[in-house]
Write a structure and sequence with these properties.
Length: 308
């Protein structure tokens, strides 16, 4: 679906994307990274809005630069707005479909259908200047999906949406994926990606740090410190036992909570019930922070900075 080979994009002396090589099969992917990491630059290269300084970009086997036929297979929801304030959402979506080559009648039907799908039917004939940020975001999504593309590309699609809007958009995107269509969406918020897909690309400083499912990247990081927290009545005794068993590299105690760092968590998970019985100790609650994408993200960022 996407092929990038040694792609670099320079803005003068500033590096937007740095020696980026990636191949993606059709599917759903989250593009994850902090603000300023190069997410929007990468999407603009994939959609042909930017030309790479070095390297090659191919989408569905073709160059995306000024490729009208390819554009008809792509849907793009940009991070910026670029909307006309004195026209209605319906007029805006309909006109963009006509620019895609649809007849006036087909564009009318497509605009109505897509605006209904994103929950904007009630306001589609109002001027865009009267829309809230969330309503404008829904309208941008409507134009991206109205021509029924094969591949949908979204840049921070949840921006400006309230919790209900986020939930509704999540359902729309899950249904999109369920139809067997492809999706790439950029976000700096982990929970947004986790709500849609477990396949992600992590970028920082314009470089690709990791790609794959959370499970695959976790497997890659075997041997790096894991953190496990225990809520227990006697955290000091439990800490000393873990140290004696040589399964804790470091310990931290706050109140009745013990947090250990370990590179070998499996023996703890396998033996803890037996150990607690033998030691006469009790654990009320146990949590592994490293089961979440947030912890995985934090660990990868530390690796990138040379802290692990």
């Amino acid at each position: 679906m996407i092929e990038l080979h040694n792609v670099t994009k320079l803005y003068g002396k500033v590096i937007g994307v740095n020696d980026f090589t990636l191949t993606l099969e059709p599917g759903a992917y989250g593009l994850l990274g902090p603000n300023g990491s190069g997410k929007s630059t990468l999407l603009n290269l994939i959609t042909g809005q930017l030309r790479p300084t070095l390297g090659t970009v191919r989408v569905m086997g073709r160059s995306p630069r000024n490729n009208v036929q390819l554009f008809r297979q792509l849907g793009y929801c940009p991070g910026g707005e670029g909307m006309y304030s004195d026209v209605s959402g319906y007029e805006w979506v309909r006109y963009l479909q006509q620019l895609q080559g649809m007849s006036a009648h087909a564009a009318k039907s497509a605009a109505e259908t897509s605006l209904e799908l994103v929950g904007m039917t009630y306001a589609m004939h109002r001027p865009i200047s009267s829309y809230s940020r969330g309503m404008r975001q829904r309208t941008k999504l409507a134009q991206a999906i109205a021509h029924d593309p094969e591949f949908l590309i979204l840049d921070e699609p949840f921006n400006g949406l309230d919790p209900i809007g986020r939930h509704e958009l999540t359902l729309v995107l899950k249904d999109w994926i369920g139809q067997g269509k492809s999706l790439l969406f950029a976000s700096h918020l982990l929970h947004e990606i986790e709500s849609i897909t477990d396949s992600f690309l992590l970028i920082c400083g314009g470089r690709l740090l990791a790609s794959g499912t959370a499970e695959e990247v976790h497997a890659m990081m075997v041997g790096l410190p894991n953190q496990i927290s225990f809520q227990c009545p006697e955290p000091h005794r439990l800490a000393s036992r873990f140290i004696e068993e040589r399964v804790a590299d470091s310990v931290r105690i706050t109140g009745d909570t013990l947090v250990i760092s370990t590179k070998t968590p499996d023996p703890i998970y396998q033996n803890l019930p037996r150990w607690l019985d033998a030691w006469g100790l009790q654990v009320l609650e146990m949590r592994s922070a490293d089961d979440s994408l947030q912890s995985l993200f934090n660990s990868l960022m530390k690796m990138h900075r040379g802290e692990l």
